[in-house]
Write a structure and sequence with these properties.
Layout lengths: L2 E8 L15 H5 L7 H17 L3 E5 L7 H6 L6 H11 L1 H8 L10 E4 L9 E5 L6 H4 L2 H11 L6 E4 L16 E4 L8 E6 L20 H10 L7 E5 L2 H4 L10 E4 L2 E5 L6 H13 L6 E5 L6 H7 L5 E4 L5 E6 H5 L1 H12 L4 E7 L2 H4 L9 E7 H5 L9 H14 L13 H16 L7 H4 L1
């Protein structure tokens, strides 16, 4: 039965701003308080979606969240009308208002973890919304994320949805940013690769000293159980703690995988060799031929990988069996990274072509091409069951481009976050968007 990998890119929300909220994310902190351009950010993301669609890849869109999150501010003691809540928060607790204004849901690699039906015990595609509890501004996303995913993948015959894990540090879950799936083909059983930064209960696992390890082993194990994955179809690996302390806050900043290929930095993992052997053996038992492409530290230092987001790229399978690597413009601007990529594609390996995209607005906030997309492997009948309103087409691209121009500001700074009118603009835009994408009522303001 034919099967496809579909990429659902996050549509950047109208409140895209540089709040510097993500400790451990070097780009996010470096550009804190800079003036952002929400319109440009959304259009850059849409341009990437359109380009991949035109290359023949299955492409979808995932809606942004309502911001500011007035309900979150009310739960923290701010009372009155919506405008009064925003104004008081701006006067008394600007960092809280900035957190509740964040458009970070654009990075849909963190929205959830997905297991295809070929891997799960009940033969359905499983989704577990990520609790993202390491950062307050992201921890408030999962209720809306769950509603949006349920509206996109609504048929219970084909899709199963799980609530986020308990919102405590022991089960910190960052979604697909720490999850990769290897397979011979998308419709056949594969091996799901869960990467964690620390263990919550086992002191034998070392932890980083400077920045937090956001994903726990226990969270990864819980998701695997919820999805009904077999032991033969799962491999767990730990990030190198010292690399997390250099700004590698998610595994997708230091490694990317697709099909039978893992593209990773030499310093990405602890105990790399036994991990690679386990991946190779388990994928071989499922008919696959695992291939590991290691980028040596002498060619690309971790610092260069973090600055360029070389590994926060999309690795896509083409019909001729070769692979295409989608990278941000920052890779071309880094001489060492660009030299390595030219050498990579000049050989006989699986990665044959590089395509560069300008995603500066997202990159300055700490998210590259891989952050912006959620991968969902779907068999033909499952794809037919996806809400057609979220599947990218030339007509939808034109409609969304016009929608962005109609509703988005072209600049946003700290003082603008205190403007109650921004909430009105956001709600007006999202109300129209739910009709465009045929999502129904998914936002809090639509549910009251």
């Amino acid at each position: 039965m034919p099967a496809f990998e579909m990429n659902f890119d996050g549509l950047v929300g109208p409140t895209h701003n540089y709040g510097g909220l993500s400790y451990g994310n070097v780009a996010s902190q470096s550009n804190s308080q800079a003036c952002s351009n929400p319109r440009e950010a959304a259009l850059q993301g849409l341009a990437k979606m359109k380009a991949l669609m035109e290359m023949g890849f299955k492409q979808g869109v995932l809606a942004p969240q309502e911001r500011p999150d007035v309900a979150a501010l009310r739960s923290l003691g701010f009372a009155g009308s919506d405008a009064e809540v925003i104004s008081r928060a701006a006067r008394e607790a600007m960092p809280l208002l900035a957190a509740c204004m964040s458009a970070s849901s654009m990075w849909t690699a963190n929205s959830c973890t997905v297991s295809p039906s070929a891997d799960t015990a009940d033969g359905r595609v499983h989704f577990t919304a990520a609790n993202l509890n390491c950062k307050f501004h992201r921890s408030i996303e999962h209720p809306t994320t769950s509603r949006v995913l349920a509206a996109m993948f609504a048929d219970p015959q084909h899709f199963a949805h799980h609530a986020a894990l308990p919102a405590v540090s022991q089960f910190g879950d960052e979604g697909a940013a720490n999850h990769t799936r290897f397979c011979k083909s998308y419709g056949e059983p594969g091996v799901e690769f869960f990467v964690f930064g620390r263990s919550a209960f086992d002191s034998r696992f070392p932890a980083p000293q400077r920045y937090p390890a956001r994903q726990t082993l226990e969270a990864s194990q819980a998701v695997a159980r919820l999805h009904g994955l077999s032991e033969e179809g799962v491999v767990y690996a730990q990030q190198t703690p010292a690399v997390i302390d250099q700004g590698v806050f998610h595994n997708d900043v230091i490694a990317v995988g697709n099909g039978e290929v893992l593209f990773y930095h030499q310093d990405a993992f602890l105990h790399t060799e036994p991990m690679l052997v386990e991946l190779q053996e388990k994928l071989a038992r499922r008919g696959g031929n695992f291939q590991a492409i290691c980028v040596p530290r002498e060619a690309v230092a971790v610092e260069d990988a973090v600055k360029s987001y070389l590994f926060n790229s999309q690795l896509l399978s083409r019909t001729d069996g070769s692979m295409l690597l989608i990278v941000p413009e920052e890779c071309r601007s880094n001489a060492r990274v660009w030299t390595y990529l030219q050498q990579l594609t000049s050989g006989s390996g699986p990665i044959r072509e590089i395509k560069v995209f300008d995603l500066k607005q997202s990159m300055q906030n700490g998210g590259g091409p891989a952050c912006l997309r959620l991968r969902v492997a779907l068999k033909e009948h499952e794809l037919a069951a996806v809400n057609p309103g979220v599947i990218m087409t030339p007509a939808l691209y034109d409609t969304l481009t016009a929608w962005v121009h109609k509703h988005y500001r072209d600049r946003l700074n700290d003082s603008d976050l205190a403007d109650p009118q921004l909430l009105v603009e956001c709600r007006t835009a999202l109300d129209e968007l739910t009709r465009i994408l045929k999502l129904g009522a998914v936002y809090p303001f639509q549910l009251t």
